[in-house]
From TrEMBL:
Matches recorded under InterPro entries: NADAR, YbiA-like_sf
Segments forming domain NADAR: 18-103
Protein name: NADAR domain-containing protein
Pfam families: NADAR
Membrane-spanning segments: none
Native organism: Parascaris univalens (Nematode worm)
């Protein structure tokens, strides 16, 4: 499942992206802690504590990780997939003052 598991409770993109980042940089303990954590702020803090993080390497892969996470999210959840398909050709956007890349 590539680390993308929809347990019905988490923001799958956020968790899966941070989880995959930890795996990419070889930090298995942080990856496990991310998947056990329930609070988004703590997941973010865990991802910032990666010992071998390389921003250039991650930035080169971030778009693909986002795509994989979203494909998995909508493949695993029939209700969300139907809701997405109902949007048709509409533009879907998130506006977040704190998220510089995806918000």
């Amino acid at each position: 499942n590539l680390g993308y598991v929809d347990d019905g409770d988490r923001t799958i993109r956020g968790w899966s992206s941070m989880y995959r980042k930890a795996l990419l940089f070889g930090d298995i303990e942080i990856a496990k802690a991310i998947m056990m954590e329930r609070e988004p702020r703590k997941v973010k803090a865990l991802s910032l504590s990666l010992r071998k993080y390389n921003g250039t390497k991650w930035n080169a892969m971030n778009d693909e990780e986002m795509r994989r996470g979203l494909v998995a999210k909508f493949a695993q959840n029939d209700h969300l997939r139907r809701m997405l398909l109902l949007t048709g050709d509409s533009l879907i956007a998130e506006c977040s003052g704190k998220e510089r890349i995806w918000g």
